[in-house]
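Final report, Chapter 2: Outcomes

The project's central promise was a pipeline that accepts a single protein chain and returns its three-dimensional structure in a standardized token representation, suitable for archiving and comparison. That pipeline is now operational. To close this chapter, we reproduce one record exactly as it appears in the project archive, with the input sequence first and the structure output second.
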Amino acid sequence: MMPSCRSAVAALALVVAAAAQTPPPEPSFARLFEPPLGMPAMELPPGDKPTAAQFELGKQLFADPILSRDRSVSCSSCHQPQHGFATSEPLPKGIDGRHPPVHAPALINRGYGKSMRWDGRTPTLEAFVVQPIADPNEMDLPLPAALERLRADAAYGKHFAGAFADGVSERNLARALATFVRGIVAGDAPIDRFHHGDPAALTKEQRAGLWLFESKAGCWRCHSAPLFTDEEFHNTGVGVRDGEPAPGRQAHTGDAADRGRFKTPTLRGVANTAPYMHDGSLATLADVVAFYSRGGNQNANLDPHLKPLNLSAEEQGHLVAFLQSL
């Protein structure tokens, strides 16, 4: 290995080590109305202004395994706060050792989302937050049974009454959980401070990575600021087996052109959310950058933007460094 390559790999190792120390976002009710630097105002459900009491109830429900059939799994089991509200495993663990078929994505900035889930089949955040409760591979508790549990719990009865005039209901359960998730907002990162006039917010390596992100590598086409996702669906070849990708969005639309297309994940807080991709198949950011450098995995529906980039080791290191700035 040439000295320059050794230096690039050593620098990359330092970047990856530093990423582990990057704190994940702290959910906050105030974020719904006062977004951090770099983030726009959040569009809230019309005629249904959330309250701090609803946020606190959602926060409690999010962490409570009462919503799973055997009381062993909570929302936070798969969307781990210490891990950027994603899961640290390729596939999250449901009850009885079961696993959902896809990686649990980060919940960062999902209040800005146009649709939910990797295939976009869920139109609203309120619909999304209650689906894992009844899913047999996740919490496996029918919603009527979940509501009965909550009504039978005196503490929850009091909390729901304090947050909603009509107490425990499916709609109010969804509203509470969605209000909490909307408070998981990430911004005011080095990249935001750089864009707002602080050139010292990014290191030399991160600035080099930003140039690559916006030019040669073309990452911006799908990961556009400020969310660093276009909220669209693309086939990058992740999960291709024998030349055939997983159904992806096709399972929702029925359109063969959608085969292998999955929602673009946000890159906000990405240093905290390994492993990556819809199947959790890439362990590190270095793996992700290398995957795109070689042009993804070939298949009939590969997105036309996916071309071999042939990035050098130094360039790949700079891109990883830039991703830490998000």
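Archive annotation: Residues 47 and 243 are 48 Å apart (CA to CA).
This record, like all others produced under the grant, will remain available to the consortium after the project formally closes.
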